[in-house]
Prior knowledge:
By secondary structure, the chain is of the alpha+beta class. It contains 3 helices and 6 strands; from the N terminus they run βββαββαβα. The protein has helices at residues 57-64, 91-99, 111-124, and strands at residues 10-24, 27-39, 48-51, 70-76, 83-88, 103-108. The strands form 2 sheets. It has a 3-stranded antiparallel sheet, with no helix packed on it. A 3-stranded antiparallel sheet has the order 5-4-6, covered by helices on one side. Helix 1 crosses helix 3 (111-124). 15% of the residues are buried. The model is unreliable at 142-153 (pLDDT under 50).
Amino acid sequence: MSETPPHSDQRWLLPQLSLRESRVGRWQSLTPELTAVLPAEPDLPNALPLTLYRDERSDYRFNLSSDAPRLFLVASGAGESLRADLLTLSQSVAAAYMDGDRTVLSCPLPEALQAWCEAFIGRHGELIERRGKGKKGKGQARETVGPDACPLRGDPLEGPQP
């Protein structure tokens, strides 16, 4: 059994999927459910990597600061042929797959993975996203370097012009 390096940005997990019978009115259907995730080796069948990316740190912080942090599984297929494709901690990534008509399941994030994600954010720092107005002009900060920033007219090295 191989050891995962302590500062690795990837963990291998084995998702446990089940089909739950649900009833809406008089109609019955089978609904897929992510019941658990177990630690796994990369060579184990159906094992998936959970990889943390530096550019998704704000998404991870948002998930961890929620009342119930979640682990998201992106799957393809339906019913008995449902196949797990991807694991993520980012709600934004999961939402993008949902917009593409993919099945996204979630389960509570185990405490060991929460601590691993916190350590990842601690090592790489918080990602602070800047969001601007998206337009330049009135209300925007002025350039502070360059020839237009100089209050003198002409060449700044020659001094002020009369």
